[in-house]
Amino acid sequence: MRPLSEVSTRELRPLLEEESDHWAGELLWDYRDVSSAVASGVERRALTGFVLQDGLRAMAYCYSMIDAGRAIVGSVFAASGFRGQGLEEKLVEAVIEDAQRHPHNERVECQTLFSTAPAADQRFIRAGFASRVRHYLVRPLDAPVDLASHHWTLRPLRREDLPGAAQIIHKSHVGSLDAALNLTYATPSFCRGFVETLVLRAGCGRFDPEASFVAESASGSVGVLLASHLSRTNGHVCQVSVSPDAQGRGIGRALMGAALRSFREQGLQTASLSVTLDNHPAYALYRALGFHLRKEFAAHAWVRPPARIPLPA
User: What is the pTM of this model?
Assistant: First the structure.
């Protein structure tokens, strides 16, 4: 095991290329931009983590990065032929210990979507993280979307809508499980940064303005959906939120229907999204719209004691 700071991008590149191919198949996600960003971070020594090597060959790695005052554990990946041997779990343990030991890290988070480690989630729980199961869902687009009639006005998201979209997202997450586990939703400013990252900086695939919508009522905007393309054939619902006082009135379903129809009209083959399993209303909606489980993973968060993460019931 070697610290990531001692490894060159030349040594790591074959592993990153294999990782891109792996997630393209498993998650329908073109991971090349992320791999390029990881390679750049390694070159600039902006990432911490560890690499397992067999001779000169990098066979597995795991990294973390600092964002908004928290350490975020990134992908945990082992090359084909080295998985299922406990190697990734050793890397996870080393990265967790390093992140928790660093005096400036008051919070550590991870979502294990990009993990080939079968027991990674248990390692986070064992290290004192609060955790909840999430599902990555996929829906084929070869069948028409059943659009229920509604009276909401939906229009394409515009750049000037971003502050209002961030407000809706924040308000819809106040007191939620997702906000407890992900600092992104904790404050209006964090939500604003999240929205700008998705829309302006391709933070989750290439932003899709044709499938991103705002729902309006007579009093103003009440819902928002942000969409992207994770690959040439897969559209992704990055975020769908409805103002608390307008929830339960079919706005989320209307936004989802419009996005799925747009994906289909653009010639995409599938649509994907992620949802916390305990978010029962959202999960039931996505299943009713034809989404099926592609991968189970988990969201994990830790704060330095004596602070704790209050998880809603």
Answer: 0.96
